[in-house]
Amino acid sequence: MLRLLLVKKPGVRSLALKLLAFHLTNEEGADRKRPLVDAKVLSRVTNLFIVKKQIELKLDDRRELIIKVETVEKVYDIFTSDDVDLVLRKSAAEQLAVIMQDIKMHAVVKKFCLIDKIIEYLNQCVDQDGEVIECMIQPCLTLLRKVLCADPVMRGSLSQESSFLIVLFRVSLIFHADLTVVAEVGALFCLLLFDEISRMDMWSVNPSDKPSSPSVFSLPFSVVRRYHLPVLVVGHHAVSPYSIVLPLSAEYVALKPVSEMLRIAWNLSWYHGTENLLKQMNSKAQIQEFSDTLKLSPEDVLTLKITHTASGLKDCLHGLVQAAAHREVRAALTRMSFYLLNDRLSLKDGTGLCGVTLKSLAWHTTLSRFLQVLPACAEDEKLLIDVIHFLNKLMKEQRKNLSVELLNWILELLLRPRPNPLLDLLVPTESQAGEAAEDVRTAVRQQLQEELIALFNTLLFRFMAVTDRKCLELLYVFQTQLALKLLQCLRVTDAPHFYGLPSLERTLRGMAHLTAVPGWSAHSALTKPLDVCVKYLSGLLEVITSFYVERGGNAMSFMGKGVTKSTVICLLHLSHEMMAQAQSSDWMSLWFLPLGGHCEEHGPIQQGLAWLIPLWVDRDPEVRFTSLGLGSALTTLEAGCVALANSCQNISGGLWGTVVNILLDHSECSMVRREAAFILQNLLVIPMPTEIIKDYTWQGPCVHDEDSGLSLIGKPALQALLYHCHFYEHLHQMVKHCYLERYTFDLSCPAFDGTPQGSDLNGLDDSFKFWRVPSRMSSQDRDPSSLATLETTVTPSSGSPEFHPLVPPTMIITEASRDQLIAQGQHETPSPQPAHDSSLSAPLPKQCVLVTPALLSAVCSLLDNLLVFSPRDTANALRQAHLIELLCSTVDATLIEKCTHELKTPLPSLSPIEHIRAQVSFLLEYLSSLSRFLQSCLLADPDLVIQDELLKPLLMNIVRVLAICTKDIGDMEVVSAFYHTWTHLFNLLATLLRKAGVVSLLSVTTALAKHWAALTDTFCKCVGLSITCPTLYTASLQFLSVLLTEEAKRHLQDKDKPNICHSPTMALLLDKSEENQKSVEQLNEGILQSYEGKSSKDALKKVAANALLSLLAVSRRAQRRALRANLIDNCMEQMKHVYAQLNLESLRPGKAALKKKEDGFVKELSIAMQLLRNCLYQNQECKEAAFEAHLVPVLHSLWPWLLMDDSLMQTALQLLCVYTANYPNGCSSLCGSSYGQYPVPSAWRGMPSNSLMLCIIRLASQMPLENAAVQQMAFMFLSNLALSHDCKGVIQKSNFLQNFLSLTLPKGGNKPLSHLAVLWLKLLLNISFGEDGQQMILRLDGCLDLLTEMSKYKHKSNPDIPLLIFHNICFSPANKPKILANEKVITVLAACLENENENAQRIGAAALWALLHNYQKAKPALKNPSIKRRVDEAYSLAKKTFSNSEANPLNAYYLKCLENLVQLLNSS
């Protein structure tokens, strides 16, 4: 296969890579070697060894040695020493490569283990930590090439070591970008892979006996022409010396085989193909143009006609039309069947010559005449059997591309008005059933019915992939008609005068195929769907009671295994159909049968489901599985729980004990135990009391202790039952014995007591192998009613402490083959209520079969219900049993990746595709169930999951499953399973971040970063599935939104902690990653288009909006993409549209309708403003675009509507805060008049004046404001504007600052300032950053005194704001006299030097230094002994405390301030 990588055909190289990928992934220790082989790696190495510059293999042969032997030995010692640095070893390798150019120097190193050392370096390189050794590879490969070029013996030895060749190939994959290394590996492959044919002595005609010097490496010319060799080689032998060329003799031409071949070849060439030749043979005028010896014989013509598919099929159809007897028709059909067989043997699957030719021929009309009349005799019936058999075979062979015309033709035949032979022949007439016909006629009639049912089964199965509307409509009608016909067959079969077990089994097998299709009963014009179901139920229950239940089960019944199994399967399908068709649960009573014998004439007959219980212990595991599946289906309804519970009252342990026993029976097969788990899951949905309640008859389980006489009911009884059965310990053992692989071969399995009966691989067993229910139904809306009490008797505590089965199994059955497990047919219940026990001390049975992932899926669902039912007790039991850790440890993403790879590139040597599909489906189903269970654990008790040793490997497995590419998987069922699993995985990750984002965020982002490129593609795929898979679309975007939101929260929390650095972050992955920049752009574009492409009424638009909001807040690249996509302009247009609609609706009467429409417009407006806010966040370019789009005028026009809704007002103020932050043009735009562009009626309250800024100032002046959030946002907005010169002028003219003087301070120094006071301080602080703002503050009478009083109060977040205001004012020379004139301010600043807060000390020192700097008048005021003493004490303390002030710039600044203060105060 490695040799194929050098051929000149790209297709051959691609196929070779696929074959090599299989060997690389299945190599021993592949998970510990580099690189990880995936589709991305293989896609870039198709032309790996197609190099432009070829390597020359020529070596030098000097007469004398130039380099001393001792020198070579020293260099070799350096090369092989592990103690020497890698740089020196690399240099030694390069020197050895130069030395080995001389062929005479090879003898020097031959005595050393040079090649072994090179191989050791190569093996180290492909290990997981082999990056450190990569520098050694290129010189090692060059050295190895030169050694092997001159050593044919070593070359021949290494060419036989496949492991070494694989290592070389891995090295080339690692260094695929390094052309030098790739060329060296290619040269080594040439030397090793073509070594056999490079030996001149083998090709020599007269080989010499004397050994000669190593010859030049050369290859035959045929190899040089066929391969693209990366080396320059000498060619030899254009023609092999061993080829024998004999002269052509006339004797050979006279031989019959040669003459026949010559005739056919001549004619085919003369007439340019078989078709033209056959046309010439069929034409009347035949012109002889060549010798008679080349003329085709009749045998030749017949052979050509038969071997040419199109001609042969035409002859067959012609024979059918011209046939005068049954034998001729059957012969033609047999020939056509052989053509189908030929297609099948050529692995064409319906795309072969026969399938293609039949689509172009009008054979439907030819066969119609045999299908439209009733057979009159046995020969007619035999002929009809052959016709039906051919149609059945044709549909099976064309299963992948079945023609819609063929299906329509068959359905129209089946649905034609009477006579309708194909459907009528299913039901024998009374005369046929009653007559004593000969055995031959009976056998023919039975075979005809068998072929008809087989045809109908194939037809139903092939329609699963049909999308043609006409075809589907015909199929629906046919399903119901077939159902009624099969029901008639069942009735005739059950008649006393007609007892035929094979006929009964065939009928039931057909019913099983039919009832598996949803809606099979709903398309009859004369009969209601439920009536059809009731008739079916009556007939099937009659079969069960007549031949199974009343005969003591299969222990006494002679009924075949197939009848029982098919009947139970039909009943299971029927239960789902009745649930779908019935409007209520009243139909449940139809499933009840009388308990006891018919001889009970006195007393009321008890109704129930007791007939179902014997099937649970049938000797056939498939019957047990299906009957338990029927129980799980019926218990999805409360009436079913009632009936099943009442039916088990006479059984030891009752329903609860029986089902728990089946689940915990380690000798039972997994598919049976799985259905028992689902029954328990359904029973837990019904609420249970904790004590006996008279009016509440559903008491749950009832446990009675015979030792103490104590009885428990409901939840306590369930806990006692779980404790007695050591439930969680059994589950622990189940998880430990889970087997994830596809096949298992246990040679030490105990022999069965009986021989298992075979199964028909072409019948029901094959279709039943991987049977699933097409849809799952929820029972959330179930209304609990009064139900019966179940009683479970607990055995006495004396004796062995081991768990004794409450219902002993009939026999020990081990699971035969994992690939034949069956998915359950049960409706899951998403909102149940469970119970628990945590005793884990009793020993378990020693015998235990392997547990499948499908069983673990059911266990996870059961634990999920138990956790909801009793959160605290179940959580404690899970923690003690370490069940969550064990369940998570069974998740294996590598196995899912391997199965997916096998599905994408199926090879003949691998397992059947159905087995691979089943395995990956079961693994994904388990992962989905585990995800739902872990999600419930997070909601109930996050500590169950938040563990590093559990969380990190689990997250890596989850991310790897999410990163799997499903592009090349052709099976839509598997793709749907992936989508279903991804949905639950995204929900789990979102719940994890919501419940424990602080702890888990770093682990989640780390796991995402390792597979970010593939995950980006997954997100892009999910965004595109809003129509076909809205749940996955919602889950993926919600996870992305939660993830980005949690990271933004962490960023805000760590804003004041510069030393904390979290890596990686989503911002880095979205903006800084260059590896998958295109995918990230596609993700941004996809989310943006998803938002804009949906209407406002679409619920998914909100999901897209939330994801887009989070993305814009974190990613600058997303903001740029939104700007290019005109998101800002679109949002502005949307706001204008909402404004116009609101005004229009306000003029219409009807307050209720107006309110409803206004709510919709308000939501639309809110989303638009939030998108604008996040798009403008810290982005000057986007702010410029919003400025040009007239953001402020639009908001000004919306002001009356904003006043009516506090949430809208808050969102608008947030938008303005972001818009005006560090954007002077935006601040200035708020000062001017902009209202006239979008006028509104003057009747609205809060009519704005000439600018939006004045409107907000008026809003902030309303004290107290009802909404504190709006008040805070208004002051934050004004704080932004306070940094603008124009806006400060507007604030001053509005006399807004006068409101600050009217603040009331809290009484008592220990109380903090009010929230409004703190907002005022922040506003004044921003105003004080400019001299004009400082003058505004100083002009307020009493402002300094008020600030002085406020400095005495403490505030948690910003305690030093008044001091900072004083600090800023002190820096202006014009303000210094006013500050010095206020003794309170000077006292506050001086007191700061003795404050315990270091920030206050720095602020006070800096303010005092600013007052003294270049202002001589300040010295007399500040030379106060009290102030001077404080300065001196602070300076001396600071010199001692901050001796090494360079480590902290703030401390250095503080020390400098005090030093200057001391100098200025001490100077004269």
Defining traits:
70 helices; single chain; two-stranded parallel ribbon; 1468 residues; 2% strand; mainly alpha
How helical, in percent, are the residues?
Answer: 55-70%
> Which class of secondary structure composition applies to the elements?
mainly alpha
> How much of the polypeptide forms β-strand, as a percent range?
under 5%
- Overall average pLDDT: 80
Largest sheet: 3 strands, mixed
In short:
The protein is mainly alpha-helical and 1468 residues long. It is built from 70 helices and nine strands. About 10% of the residues have low confidence.
Structure explained in plain terms:
Helix content is 60%, strand content 2%. The protein has a 3-stranded mixed β-sheet. A two-stranded parallel ribbon has the order 1-3. Strands 2-4 form a two-stranded parallel ribbon. The longest helix is centred in the last third of the chain and has 39 residues, at 972-1010. It is globular and about 135 Å long. Residues 207-213, 494-498, 554-558, 596-604, 746-846 and 1235-1248 have low confidence and may be disordered.
Topology diagram in text:
Elements: H1 10-25, H2 39-43, E1 55-56, H3 69-80, H4 86-99, H5 106-110, H6 114-126, H7 137-149, H8 152-158, H9 162-174, H10 179-193, H11 200-203, E2 218-220, H12 221-226, E3 231-232, E4 234-236, H13 250-253, H14 256-270, H15 274-282, H16 298-307, H17 309-322, H18 326-345, H19 353-360, H20 363-371, H21 378-397, H22 404-414, H23 421-424, H24 430-434, H25 439-462, H26 469-494, H27 501-515, H28 529-549, H29 561-581, E5 593-594, E6 607-608, H30 621-634, H31 638-647, H32 654-664, H33 670-683, E7 702-705, E8 711-713, H34 715-725, H35 727-736, H36 764-768, E9 792-794, H37 853-869, H38 871-881, H39 883-889, H40 893-904, H41 913-940, H42 948-962, H43 972-1010, H44 1012-1023, H45 1030-1053, H46 1066-1072, H47 1077-1092, H48 1099-1114, H49 1116-1124, H50 1127-1146, H51 1151-1176, H52 1180-1188, H53 1191-1197, H54 1199-1203, H55 1206-1220, H56 1224-1229, H57 1252-1261, H58 1268-1281, H59 1285-1293, H60 1298-1301, H61 1315-1327, H62 1331-1339, H63 1343-1350, H64 1361-1369, H65 1376-1380, H66 1383-1391, H67 1398-1412, H68 1418-1422, H69 1425-1441, H70 1449-1466
Parallel strand pairs: 1-3, 2-4, 7-9
Antiparallel strand pairs: 5-6, 7-8
Helix pairs in contact: 3-4, 4-7, 6-7, 6-9, 7-10, 9-10, 17-18, 18-21, 21-25, 22-26, 25-27, 26-27, 26-28, 27-29, 28-29, 29-30, 30-33, 32-33, 33-37, 37-38, 37-41, 40-41, 40-42, 41-43, 42-43, 43-45, 44-47, 45-48, 47-48, 47-49, 48-49, 48-51, 50-51, 51-55, 55-58, 57-58, 58-61, 61-64, 64-67, 66-67, ...
